[in-house]
Structure formats: structure tokens, C-alpha cells
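Input record (Table S2, row 545):
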Amino acid sequence: MNPVKYIFVTGGVTSSLGKGIIAASLAKLLQARGYRTTIQKFDPYINVDPGTLNPYEHGECFVTDDGAETDLDLGHYERFLNVPTSQANNVTTGSVYLSVIEKERRGEFLGKTVQVVPHITNEIKSRMKLLGESGNFDIVITEIGGTVGDIESLPYIESVRQLLWELGEGNAITIHLTLVPYLAAAKELKTKPTQHSVKTLMESGIKADILVCRTEHELSDELREKLALFCNVKKEAVIQSIDASTIYDVPNLMLKEKLDVVALNKLRLPKKSRPDLSKWNEFLKKHKKPKHTVNVGLIGKYVELQDSYKSILEAFVHSGASNQTRVNVVSIHSEYLNRKNVAEKLAGLDGVLVAPGFGERGVEGKIEAIRYVRENKIPFFGICLGMQMAVIEYSRNVLGLQDANSTEMNPKTKNPVIHIMEDQKHVTDKGGTMRLGAWDCQLKKGTLVYSIYNQEMISERHRHRFELNNTYLKDLEKAGLMASGVNPKTKLVEVIELKNHPFFIGVQYHPEYKSTVANPHPIFVEFVKATVQHKQHLGSTRLMV
Ligand code: GLN
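Output record (glutamine complex):
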């Protein structure tokens, strides 16, 4: 068997340079050349996973099939590669320390003093090799979070140094991503920050094999030569990463810069065929040349920060392209929505998505928005908390249960139409204790959701503690709200929909996590289609007047 090859991606100068997108784009090119490639992310913070982090802190928490709460970069990996990731693809300093300390408590270190080197670094190294040892991959790309020189990154950088040494030349390489800033006053691109960053990496014993330079302007030949000379890399290994209008352009940009070829040469791997990106480029064409434009309201309470709803926004890009439609997402803060202003705030929208969320803030605004779109027959899509709020809205305004609520928002409500699951009642720890990961759901024939998936059994990813209270199900169904998807074992309701409405669907799970470029999620695809139809219908009724 050929040895697994490792690519480490580090970052310098500043954060937010798009290491995740570079890693995903390189992986895409290697995959398109026929290599089984995966990407993993190592984050230097002490949270055991990002599940306990506020979205304002760290953006969305992405969830895998096996129920790991992970960094949102794993979402990019899945969207680009169309291969599911798992718990093993995301490691944090907290999770490394936790397992080392647990081993120490079990006495596994046999009386030794437990130290950062070698115990923490050994744990990091074994996690870095875990996916490589599974036999499922030819190439493993490891993205190291943070920037070189940070105190908290040091154990990771040292582990990479040791692995480069142990695996040997040709089996492991380092890519260093830096910024080449443009000074407007001098009208010049500057290489000095990159030189310093490479030097910092060198001080830790790592020589960058490839430099990826984020820039707003083209790097001249001269500048590439300068960077090569002062940063100790070959000229062809100076890769330009110019700002792109969409992240989905980056694989093509990296192909043009030959990032994949340079990496394969350094890893002593054959280039095989030219990467087949035909499907990817078909998607790009549709994305860039839409025939329709729709306005979709995204109603949530974290709307100030784009990254909070990353997977939802990307799912609209995928499903928009497959409908040849530009989906203009209009962010609406649920906290500032009320019965008086809802018509004005939702005016001109062709559809509304009510977002997932936790806690009381902004829920009444979500309920008002749902009432408005239900009564005005505007396409509606509720995800997790969005679905729960649709049940509450229907219970209050159609069933007449005025105090209907979720026990998450009002533990004392007389009508807990959404309540906590039995097995959650005694859970006190917050981290990793929700209903997480993939669960089955059985769809009822003849329903909207069945026609969307076109199959009876589906599996989708979850992240929540509360559920529809089945005591109210009969009454809700009698009043016209249908449970069209149910977990076959637990009987928990997974999907609700309304019959007398052009498109009204709420799901307890998170379909956005499974939407990829190659496989846009079917509910998003049909929702976008419904918004286009809504707009056309409105247009034709306007013409008739
Ligand atoms: N707060 C709700 C629950 O825990 C919904 C969670 C979510 O939207 N992901 O059930």
C-alpha cells in the first residue's frame, strides 16, 4: 500500500485569510485528479468543541453525521468535496487536554510527569494521523487554526515539525498562507509581513514548502521572485490567492496557479489526469448567470454576523444555482419584528426562512412573521427553532391556545406544545448533550415533503433539546397542521406542513448541513422554486389588475 501523504496548512500575518477555503480548494483539485482526500481542522482554543460557543463568537456551529459539534470550516470541506466529515475531522486544544488528563487520571502514564512535550504533542500527532490510518484516504490535509507566533498555536506547530521529520521528505509538506497587503499611498504590494511570518515559522523549525499569498492585486513576476528568494521557496511555489467574487471560484484560481501540481510534485505523487471540474463549472455558470432573482427573508437573532447562518446562506447558493435563480437573502432581526411592523418589514419578500436558535430573545418576532406568511400564503421554511415557532403560532392563532409556548421560553406555560425530551430533563451539562447528529425520519406518502425527497426513509442531522409535544398532535392535525415526517422509533415529529398553503414546511432537523455544490438540498431547491413561482404569480396577478 502506498503511504498516506500529509499536507499541513498554517497561516500567518492575520487571521481570516481563508485558510479553510484554500484547503478545501486544494482538496477539491486533488479529489478531481482521482486522489481520496480529506481535510481536518485543529483549533487552538480551550473549548472542547465549539458547541458551547455563542455564534457571535465563532459563527455557526456545524454538525456532522456522527453528532460532532464542529468548526464551520468543516461545512466548507463538505460543500466542496461532497464527502461527509466526522468527529475525527475537528480537534481543539480543549479536547486534546481533556483526553490527556483523563489518561493521567487512569494512571496510563505510569508515574511519569505529564508535560506539553511529549504528552500533549504526542496526543496531537496521533490525532493528526488518525484519519490517515483509516485506510480511506490517500491524502490528508490538516488546517491549523490561528496564526503562527500565537502562544496557543505552539504545541500544534511543534507537532507538525515532529511529523514532518518522522514522515520524511516527500511524505509531508507545509503550505503557509499569508497576506501581501497593498499600500494605496505607495501604490505598492508589500512582502515584508510575509517574510516575517515565514521567519517566525522557521524559528519553530518549519520551512514552508509552498506560500499562498492572499492579495487584492496581481503579484508581478518580480514580486514572486522576491518572495521566493527571501522566503526560501521555489518561484513556482509562490501561489497567488487573489480576492474572488465567490469562494466557489477559488478551486479554478488555484488550478490556474498550479497549486495542486506543485503540491503533488513535492509529495512525489503522479499528476494523473487533468482535474475534471465539469460539474463544478456547470454549477458556477448557473450561479453567475441567473434567469430569475428572488428576495428571501432570513429571520433570526444573530443576523448581524454573516457567519452565524453560514450553511443556510451557502445552501441558498447551491439551490439558487440549480433553479438558475439569484437568491437575494434579506436579513431581518427577529427582535425588532412585531404585529404592527411585520407587513412593512416583510414587504417585497418572495419567501421567508425562520432560522434555528436558542433562548427567548426574538421568538415573538419569529411567531409574528410566521403568522403573516401563513395568512398571506408566502412560501415558508422553518428550521429547528423555526419549525417549533410555527407549531406555537398555529396553536395560538388557529387552535386558540393563547398561551401556547415552548417550555424553553416559558417553563410554566399551561400549553407546552413544544417541550423538553424525557431523556433531556435531567441533563445539566451543556456541552455535547443535545440530540445531535443523524437520525432517521419516515415521510408520509402524498405529502409535500415526500414529493420533495421522493423517498420514504431519510436521515438528517439534528442539534436541539426540545420537541413537538405529541399530546397536542391530534388537535393540531385536526386543525390542518400535518406531521408529515416522524422518527420511526421514537415517534418524535420531524416535519410539519400545511395543506392549504402553496409552500409551508417546518423541519426539526438541519437540512442546511447536508447541502453541497454537487447535491443541493432538496428542500432548499423546492423552496427556491416556490419563491420563484410566488413572484411570477404575483407578477401575473398584478398584470391582470
Ligand atoms: N432551542 C431549540 C431546542 O433546543 C431549537 C434549537 C435549534 O434551533 N437548533 O430545541
